[in-house]
Write a structure and sequence with these properties.
This protein has helices spanning about 35-40, 55-75, 100-105, 115-125, 130-150, 155-175, 185-200, 210-220, 300-320, 335-340, 355-365, 415-440, 450-460, 470-480, 480-490, 495-505, 535-550, 565-590, and strands at about 50-55, 85, 95, 180, 230-240, 245-250, 250-255, 270, 275, 325-330, 345-350, 380, 385-390, 395-400, 405-415, 440-445, 515, 520-525, 530-535, 555-560. With about 600 residues, it is α+β, with helices and mostly antiparallel strands. The strands form seven sheets. The chain has a four-stranded antiparallel sheet. A four-stranded mixed sheet has the order 11-10-9-12, sandwiched between helices. Strand 9 (about 275), helix 9 and strand 10 form a beta-alpha-beta unit. Helix 13 crosses helix 16 (about 495-505).
C-alpha cells in the first residue's frame, strides 16, 4: 500500500502482491468520487444531434411562440382591422385579413405554435368565421397563465380551472343567445342579412356589406337544405366595380372554347330542353388497335363513309331528342358545332365537371354517356338561357331553374388580389348564414358577449376558496382581449372604453353592450344589428381553451433533426452508386487488366 506524502487527497491504491485492498488513513472520504459512479457507463438514449428541451423554461418558450403568432394576426380583427400582404416563395401575392388564410400562408415551423394554425383551420372549416378570434383567445389564455407557471404553479391546476371556466362560459352563451326560429321567411332573411353584414364588416368589401349580405342570404336560401357548398358557385371577372357583381339563381359559367360555326348558333332560348353528355362529338379516324386490309381500293371510300355516318348518327340522335342546348364534358368538334348551328341548337364542349354537376342539379337533367335511347326524363329545363357579355368574358347563364338547388355569384372588381379576397370574404359570409340557418341562435357582437362572460366568471371566482379563484379570474381577464383589440385596431382608447363596458355590464343594465366602432364609445350591439351566430363564439371558446390546455400540458420537446453528416454520406453513396458501375464497365470493355 502507498500513502500520499503531500497535502493532496489520497485515493485507493492497490499493492501488486496483496489481493486485499486497504484504505489509506489520510484519504478524504467526502471529496473522492465513489467507485460505482466512476465505473458506471454513460447511457445514450437518443441519436447524436437530438435537441431536447424540458421543464418550466420549455413551457414558457412555447407560450412566447404562441404569443408571437397571435401578434401577426392581432391587427386584422374587427371592422377597422388592417390587411396583411403575404408574398410566398413562388412569387404569389395574397392580400387578406382572414385569420385562417394568413395562418396557412405563414408556414409556421415552431411545433407548439403550429397548434394555433390548426385551430384557425378547424374554426374556418367548422363555422367559417372567427378565425382571428380563436387565435387571439388561445394566445391570451396562455399569456395570462404565464405568470402562474413562472411562480411554480403546476400546469394541471391551471388546465383544470380553465376547463371549468370554459364549461361555464358555454352555458352562459346558451342562456344569452336569442333564437330566430319560428319567424317568417322575410323576417328570417333580414336577421340572416344582419349576421352576414357583421361578418363582412371586417373584410375588404366591408364598404358594400349590405349589398353583398343580401346576395349571400339569397344564394344560401336558394340551395335550401342541401349541405354541399359547391352548389353555390363564385365566378370572378376582373373589371368594373363591386356594385357590378350580381347573383344568378341558377348556373353561370364562362363560355368554353368554341369552333367555327359557333357564331351562327342562337344565343337565347325560352324554356329550352337541356341535354348533358359525357362523350366526344368529333370526327375520329380509328388509329389505335385497328388494322384494315383491303383487296380493292374502291372499298376505302366505304370505310371513310362509315366514319362519317357514325358521327352524323350521334348528332342526329341529339337533335331528335328535342334538346335545344347540348353541353358536354368532352370536346364538341367543328363538324358538330356547324351541324347544331344549322338546326338552331346551342352547344358547348369541354364544360368543367363542377359546372356540369351544378347544371344537372339545377335543371334536373342527368349526364348521359351515350346518345342512344335519350328519353324526356333525362333532359333538363330552365325558364331562360342566354349568353351574356360580362366584362371581357362571355357567360352562359341558366336562370329560372325548376329545382332551384343552386346559385352563382359573379364577382366584379379591379385587381385580381382584390377579387380573390372578396371571394374569401363571401365564403366566410356564406358559411355564417348556413350555420345561422341550422342553429338559429344569435348573440350580440362587438365584444359584448365576451364582456358579459368575463363579468359572470369574475363573480363566480369570488365564491371559490383556493388558487382556482386566481386562475378563473385570469381566464375572465383573457376574454377581454376581443373588445380591447377592437378598440386598438380602430384607434380608440382601449382602457377608457373597457372601463365603460365593465361598469355597464357590472350594473346589470346592458349585457348586450359592446364597442361602438363608429363613435369610439359603447353601444347596444343588438340594437345596432351587430349579431353573430352563437355557434361561432361557442366553437371559438372551445377550440381556444383546448389549444391552451394542450400547450400547457407539454413540458418537454424532443427534436431530432437529420444530421448534416448523415445527409452528406447519403448523397455521396448515391453518387457512388450511379458512377461506380459505369466506370467499371468502361474499364472492363476498353482495356485488358495486366
Amino acid at each position: 500500500m502507498t500513502l500520499s506524502s503531500s497535502g493532496y487527497r489520497s485515493y485507493y491504491s492497490l499493492q501488486a502482491s496483496s489481493p486485499k485492498t486497504t484504505l489509506s488513513p489520510q484519504r478524504n472520504l467526502l471529496s473522492s468520487p465513489p467507485m460505482a459512479s466512476m465505473l458506471q457507463p454513460q447511457i445514450i438514449l437518443l441519436k447524436e444531434g437530438t435537441d431536447t428541451a424540458q421543464g418550466k423554461g420549455q413551457l414558457i418558450s412555447n407560450i412566447n411562440a404562441c404569443t408571437a403568432v397571435a401578434d401577426a394576426v392581432r391587427t386584422t380583427l374587427g371592422p377597422r382591422g388592417m390587411d396583411k400582404l403575404v408574398h410566398d416563395e413562388k412569387g404569389n401575392t395574397t392580400i387578406s385579413n382572414d385569420g385562417a388564410t394568413i395562418m396557412n400562408l405563414l408556414d409556421i415551423v415552431h411545433p407548439g405554435a403550429k397548434i394555433l394554425a390548426d385551430i384557425a383551420r378547424s374554426q374556418d372549416s367548422e363555422v367559417g368565421d372567427g378565425t382571428t378570434t380563436v387565435v387571439l383567445l388561445a394566445a391570451e389564455f396562455l399569456k395570462e397563465a404565464k405568470p402562474f407557471v413562472e411562480d411554480g404553479v403546476h400546469p394541471h391546476n391551471l388546465i383544470r380551472s380553465y376547463r371549468t371556466a370554459s364549461t361555464m362560459a358555454l352555458k352562459k352563451i346558451e342562456e344569452l343567445a336569442v333564437s330566430i326560429e319560428g319567424k317568417s321567411l322575410e323576417e328570417k332573411k333580414q336577421l340572416l342579412s344582419k349576421c352576414a353584414a357583421t361578418t363582412l364588416s371586417s373584410k375588404l368589401i366591408g364598404g358594400e356589406k349590405e349589398f353583398f349580405a343580401s346576395m349571400v342570404v339569397d344564394a344560401v336560401i336558394a340551395i335550401g337544405n342541401d349541405d354541399r357548398l359547391n352548389l353555390i358557385g363564385i365566378k370572378k371577372v376582373p373589371g368594373g366595380t363591386m356594385r357590378d357583381s350580381f347573383l344568378v339563381k341558377g348556373v353561370a359559367f364562362k363560355k368554353t372554347f368554341s369552333y367555327a360555326g359557333f357564331e351562327q348558333q342562337p344565343k337565347k332560348f325560352l324554356s329550352p330542353k337541356i341535354l348533358l353528355l359525357n362523350i366526344e362529338l368529333e370526327l375520329k379516324s380509328e388509329k389505335e388497335n385497328a388494322e384494315i386490309r383491303l383487296s380493292d381500293p374502291l372499298q376505302y371510300q366505304s370505310i371513310v363513309d362509315a366514319e362519317w355516318n357514325i358521327i352524323y348518327d350521334k348528332l342526329d340522335k341529339c337533335v331528335k331528342s328535342g334538346a335545344k342546348i347540348v353541353l358536354s364534358r368532352l370536346a364538341i368538334g367543328d363538324l358538330a358545332t356547324q351541324y347544331f348551328a344549322d338546326r338552331d341548337v346551342f352547344c358547348a364542349g369541354r364544360v368543367a365537371e363542377e359546372d356540369l354537376k351544378r347544371v344537372a342539379a339545377a335543371t334536373g337533367a342527368a349526364v348521359q354517356t351515350t346518345v342512344n335511347n335519350i328519353i324526356d326524363e333525362v333532359l333538363g329545363s330552365c325558364e331562360v338561357f342566354e349568353e351574356r357579355q360580362v366584362g371581357n368574358e362571355r357567360f352562359n347563364i341558366f336562370s329560372g331553374c325548376p329545382s332551384g338547388q343552386t346559385a352563382t355569384i359573379v364577382l366584379r372588381g379591379g385587381a385580381d388580389q382584390f377579387i380573390e379576397e372578396a371571394e374569401r370574404s363571401l365564403h366566410d359570409a356564406i358559411m355564417i348564414v348556413r350555420r345561422a340557418l341550422k342553429n338559429s341562435t344569435v348573440v350580440p357582437g362587438g365584444g359584448a358577449i365576451d364582456m358579459e362572460i368575463s363579468k359572470y366568471l369574475r363573480q363566480h371566482a369570488r365564491t371559490i376558496a383556493g388558487k382556482s379563484q386566481l386562475f378563473i379570474n385570469a381566464y375572465a381577464k383573457a376574454l377581454e382581449v376581443i373588445p380591447r383589440q377592437l378598440c386598438d385596431n380602430a384607434g380608440f382608447d382601449a382602457t377608457d372604453v373597457l372601463n365603460k363596458l365593465r361598469q355597464k355590464h357590472a350594473s346589470g343594465e346592458g349585457p348586450n353592450y359592446g364597442v361602438d366602432i363608429n363613435t369610439g364609445g359603447i353601444a347596444d350591439s343588438f340594437a345596432n344589428f351587430v349579431w353573430e351566430p352563437a355557434v361561432v363564439k361557442i366553437n371559438a371558446i372551445n377550440a381556444a381553451t383546448e389549444a391552451a390546455c394542450l400547450i400547457l400540458s407539454v413540458d418537454e420537446t424532443v427534436k431530432n433533426p437529420k444530421s448534416e453528416s448523415a445527409q452528406g454520406e447519403a448523397a455521396a453513396s448515391a453518387m457512388a452508386g450511379r458512377g461506380g458501375p459505369a466506370m467499371r464497365g468502361r474499364g472492363g470493355r476498353g482495356m485488358r487488366r495486366r
